Amino acid sequence: MDLEEIVFQIILNAGNAKSSCFEALKNAKEGDFKSAEKYLNNAEEEIIKAHNIQSSMLQKEANGDHQNVTLLLMHAEDHMMSAILARDLITEMIELYKFIYQTKGIMLN
Questions:
Q1: A GO molecular function for this record (predicted)?
Q2: 2 is in an annotated binding site
Q3: pLDDT (tens digit, 9 = 90+) per residue, 59-82?
Q4: What domains lie within the chain, and their CATH numbers?
């Protein structure tokens, strides 16, 4: 696989992760915390895939196989970091929704 294909795989995984995070938030807002958890788990799997690709690239770099840093690679890294940030923030927001639902005496599902 060439660098461009690798970079697009990171973008794909990160985009999938971010989409899953926002689906999790939507479900939590509606009180469906089981679905929200499933979406967060899916997001985590996608982030791990992207991170594994990135780690492989870093190992190659450490072993002397240097890659040119392209705008596309920077774009992929940006996508990955924003997916991680979305996961972290949305996880906290879901906890807030749980607290709100519990405070109102609404059963959590």
A1: transferase activity
A2: no
A3: 988 998 888 888 999 999 999 999
A4: 3-103 (1.20.58.80)
